[in-house]
Amino acid sequence: MAFDDKICIRGLRIFAHHGVYEEETRLGQMFVVNATLYTSTRKGGLEDNLENTISYADVCQFITEHLQQNTWKLLEAAVEHTCRALLLRYPLLHKVELELEKPSAPIPLPFDSVSVCITRSWHRVFVAMGSNMGDKQAYLDGAVQAMKADDCIRLKNTSTYYVTEPYGGVEQDDFLNAAMEIETVYSPEELLDMLHDLEKAAKRERLVHWGPRTLDLDILLYDDLVQDDLQLTLPHPDMQNRDFVLKPMAELCPHLVHPVLHQTMQSLLNDLQKK
Predict the structure, then answer these.
(1) Which of 37, 43, 241, 255 is least surrounded by CB atoms within 10 angstroms?
(2) Could you report the per-residue pLDDT of 156-166, keeping only the tens digit for each?
(3) Which pLDDT does position 212 carry in this prediction?
(4) How far is C-alpha 265 from the chain's CA centre?
């Protein structure tokens, strides 16, 4: 589905209580909101039905109430929390650009206004799951349920659970592996922290590289993002060499193209099985 359509809100004035100084939170001041909502307006336009689009009147009311019922010191915090609240409230909203202006900011110099503008969206992500200790299926089922329970994640699909041989040369029990397709408003780093928390809850211990584990959760793909830093490498750097990753990925999305290798999941699996 294309999300190139926009619903634009400009100059929404809201009296609220945000700021670093006590006078700002006590007395309040006027803020101005500019919002661009990325969605598909096609069905609503063709059917002339408000139920098939996003009501800008409802969005204006929601933003107003959200900014008036909460208090933040920083504009950055106000727009961050408001963006996330919008994405979680409106199922048809894929991406939002939100600018919050503060025309009466306490700056002892002539100026028109200051503002913070950010863009946030839902992201398509694939997560690999594995376990080879204890009740393997229960650990994987628990990870799936945790995804379903998190408001910031939409679980789209889960692959079959595959019994696979250990990878990496360490003698250990067979693994149970799978993959999940999710949508999330978490950043890659936020999602990674969330997955690590799930592993800790399953009492995973990182004692031996490629060793046995109660629960292993890895981000395989995050949209088409390519990054390489100390915390996280995307796409997963070794997924093309792991049949226990490519089998569930080929099941979920055989025609999805790897953003670096430029091959589909099915093609990568076929090449690996020929080796």
Answers:
(1) 255
(2) 999 999 999 88
(3) 78
(4) 22
Task: Provide the 3-class DSSP secondary structure of residue 75.
Answer: helix
Please give the structure tokens belonging to residue 210: 């490629």
148: left (phi over 0), alpha (psi -120 to 50) or beta: alpha
What's the sign of the alpha-carbon dihedral 245, 247, 248, 252? positive
Catalytic pick among 6, 43, 95, 102: 102
Two tokens, residue 162: 């595959």
191-236 residue pLDDT tens:
999 999 999 999 876 655 556 789 999 999 999 999 999 899 999 9
Domains of the chain: 5-121 (3.30.1130.10), 123-274 (3.30.70.560)
- The number of angstroms, rounded, from the C-alpha of 47 to the middle of its chain's C-alpha atoms is 31
Q: CA distances (Å), 10 to each of 85, 99, 101, in order?
A: 19, 9, 11
Q: Which residues pair with 118 in a beta bridge?
A: 98
What's the predicted TM-score (pTM) here?
0.93
Within a 10 A sphere around the Cβ of 27, how many other Cβ atoms? 10
Q: Are 126 and 254 in contact (CB under 8 A)?
A: no
Q: How far is CA 32 from CA 17, 27, 212, 220, 253, in A?
A: 13, 17, 54, 40, 43
Residue 228 · residue 206 · CB < 8 Å: no
Residue 239 DSSP class: G
